[in-house]
Amino acid sequence: MPSAYSTLKRALVGRPLATSASAHERVSRAVGLAIFSSDAVASSAFATQEILHVLVPVAGMAAIGYLTPMSLLVVALLAIVVFSYRQTIHAYPNGGGSYIVSKDNLGILPGLVAGASLLVDYTLTVAVSIAAGTAAITSAIAPLRDHRVGTAVVLLVGLALANLRGVRESGRIFAPPTYGYIAIMTLFIGYGLLRTVFGDLGPLPVDQEALDEITHNGALLGTLSLFLLMRAFSSGAIALSGVEAISNGVPAFRPPEAKNAATVLTWTGGILAALFCGVAALCLQLRPTLSEDETILSTMGRAVFGENNVLYYVLQFFTASILILSANTAFADFPRLSAVIASDGFLPRQLAHRGDRLAFSNGIIALTVASIALLVAFRADVTALVPLFAVGLFMSFTLSQAGMVVHHWRLREPRWRLGLGINALGALATAVVLVVILVSKLTEGAWVPTLVIPVITLVFLRIRRHYSGVESQIRALPGVRTVVVDEREQAQVLTVHTEPGAEMAPAVLSRLEGSRIGKLITREPTLEDAYVELVAAAA
User: Fold this and answer.
1) Which pLDDT value is given to residue 195?
2) Alpha-carbon distance 329 to 380, whole Å?
3) Between the ranges 170-184, 235-249, 386-400, 422-436, where is the mean pLDDT highest?
4) Beta strand pairing status for 517-523 and 493-497?
5) What is the pLDDT of residues 136-181, one digit of tens each?
6) What is the reported pTM?
7) Class of domain 4-440
8) CA neighbor of 102 nearest in space, from 402, 459, 446
9) What is the pLDDT of residue 490?
């Protein structure tokens, strides 16, 4: 009979899939948009608010006037990054994440730094997305405001279980919220702007109590400096999160993989730019007051649709849904990246193993645990998490684009000069933003990933050193091509493959010396190598 654990596992995760079914787990462009682009699309719900969180305490309501230049800069950066990553997708149709591109073109160490940056970025993506989704829920449901951390953890665990069920099944779950969010946001922005054009809706009254709380009763008000504007721009630049994920997940698409992934990336950039600019434009017209208890999207939604209108709750529902499910971008790519790094020997090899549903289950579990720790440590506060978020994101962007510059220079494929120019511009733009983030937000939390990324890189090297040491211990002596030890606990069988007449490796001999040998069976080689099978006696 199956154990209670197996029964529970089947109920939560589903029945095991054969490895041969992996081809059927590939996704279409429509489902791929939901899986790999939800993070980027969802950032339109909070990127504008994060810009205001930096500017309003100093400039008050006048800060809203700076949204236009900030939004245009972010969209210009988005366009550069999208075109740059299209180059990456076509150059690396088997998956061209920053780790692979940097390692292949810049060397192992830059590749490991890029890998560490991405792992940190994906973990923070989950934490920020879940925290932002929780904020959308508590904006509409006031009693939950005192239980943000608990709500966030419950939502995260549910998301992890959905991913453990497999890529294609999770895509079915995430597609409706993604497309529902795009539809309701289009209606919200379009209807809201129409009402302002026809004079039916004007600027909202200032909530002086909320403004006093943000500005500490006016004590923080002063003159905006270049340094503060840099901080605001770097906060808005988190809208680019998730763009990298598509290039890393190319193999998950149906053939032709590269073409489909590039198409989805272009769709993502266009949708994000339209929604981000739309929210900023509506914010300029309505001038909502920034509040610690309610998002500006919720405030404007009440104004556009009406206080108790069902469309307001539809807006909040889909906003919360996509913000929570946007963490799925990280759940799709963190385990895949971990598996690639583990296959190279820089992470525990258990992370390279697929689970019953052909997902990298160990990577999903590791990401869940790390994200819960962040949510608890930062009390599910988006503003507190954002300064940590952007360092890994733009570090990986910069290394990937620099790697592509070297790639074009080395191979000089057709139209290589155009590709090199696009990627060089991408590398320069993202490097400038990275410097801005480090300069403007180092003391606000950016120092954490700045410290953690080198530490993770050193851990990678230490793990690889460990595996190299193990390999040297079981390495065959000269004249032996392969020595493979396969120990099956139930049958207590130890099998050693060597060439005829060759000596066994010292580590293998030491294992045999401690065994109780019941009998020794030798067989003639049937293929290239002979082998010796040693059957250990039962204890």
Assistant:
1) 93
2) 19
3) 422-436
4) unpaired
5) 888 878 788 788 888 889 989 888 887 776 555 555 666 888 899 9
6) 0.75
7) mainly alpha
8) 402
9) 37
Spatial contact of 32 and 253, defined as CB atoms under 8 Å apart: yes
- Contact residues for 355 (Cβ-Cβ < 8 A; gap 6+): 13, 164, 361, 362
Q: What b/e readout covers 149-179, taking b as 16+ CB neighbours within 10 angstroms?
A: bebbbebbeebbebbbbbbbbbbebbbebbb
CB 189 within 8 A of CB 304: no
As given in the structure block, the two tokens for residue 294 are 């309610």
Tell me how far apart the alpha carbons of residues 244 and 261 are, in angstroms, rounded to a whole number. Answer: 11
Segment 108-137 shows an average pLDDT of: 89
Q: How many CA atoms lie within 13 A of 437 on its CB side?
A: 27
Contact 143/422 with Cβ under 8 angstroms? no
Task: Give the residue ranges of DSSP H helices in 43-66.
Answer: 47-59
Tell me if 347 sits within 8 A of 341, measured CB to CB.
Answer: yes
Given a contact cutoff of 8 angstroms between Cβ atoms, the answer to whether 167 and 252 are in contact is yes
Domain boundaries, the chain: 4-440, 485-536
DSSP line for 10-25: HHHH-S---GGGGGGG
Nearest to 298 by CA among 326, 317, 274: 317
Report CA-CA distances (Å) from 227 to 386, 436, 437, 440. 17, 9, 10, 6
| Cβ atoms of residues 521 and 533 within 8 Å | yes
To the nearest whole number, what is the mean pLDDT of the chain?
A: 79
- Within 10 Å of residue 141's Cβ, how many Cβ atoms? 13
**Bridge partners of residue 486, in order along the sequence:** 495
**Coil, strand, or helix at residue 520?**
strand
As a whole number of Å, the end-to-end CA separation of the chain is: 27
Distance CA 103, CA 94 (A): 15
d(CA 71, CA 83): 18
Residue with tokens 């909202």: 204
The Cα–Cα gap between 280 and 198 comes to: 19
Tell me if 201 sits within 8 A of 304, measured CB to CB. yes
Short-list 265, 257, 238, 296, CA closest to 63: 296
